[in-house]
């Protein structure tokens, strides 16, 4: 597993950190642990627990639905954009496959994006600059302006 962290965000480099994960189940718990560790020095006012939950759901979706004929990784990046925290999760899947579902009470799956939709101030999906798909969420007012 690999990870990278930027210690000195600036206007030219708003990225606070990033991690690259293998598309395996163990990466979900690693993403939670690493994000919690690496965001702590920035002391965001938003709920880190909520962010960890959403990252966990999006990394799980990336692992389950990402696909490629080549070796691929899941990439998670987090940024400070003004007073907001933005988190991107990149995978090798196709943007058209990202759909918000409304599962029945008896459905065992399908609640990941529903959780993101209900917790985040906003979320979106589209083509990733690395190829594949990126799903992003924003937590507004994560830092005082």
TrEMBL record:
Keyword vocabulary terms for this entry: ATP-binding, Kinase, Nucleotide-binding, Serine/threonine-protein kinase, Transferase
Entry superkingdom: Bacteria
GO MF annotation terms: ATP binding; protein serine/threonine kinase activity
The keyword RNA-binding is assigned to this record: no
Transmembrane segments: none
Domain Histidine kinase/HSP90-like ATPase: 26-137
Keyword Kinase applies: yes
Protein name as it appears in the record: ATP-binding protein
The organism of origin for this protein: Streptomyces phaeofaciens
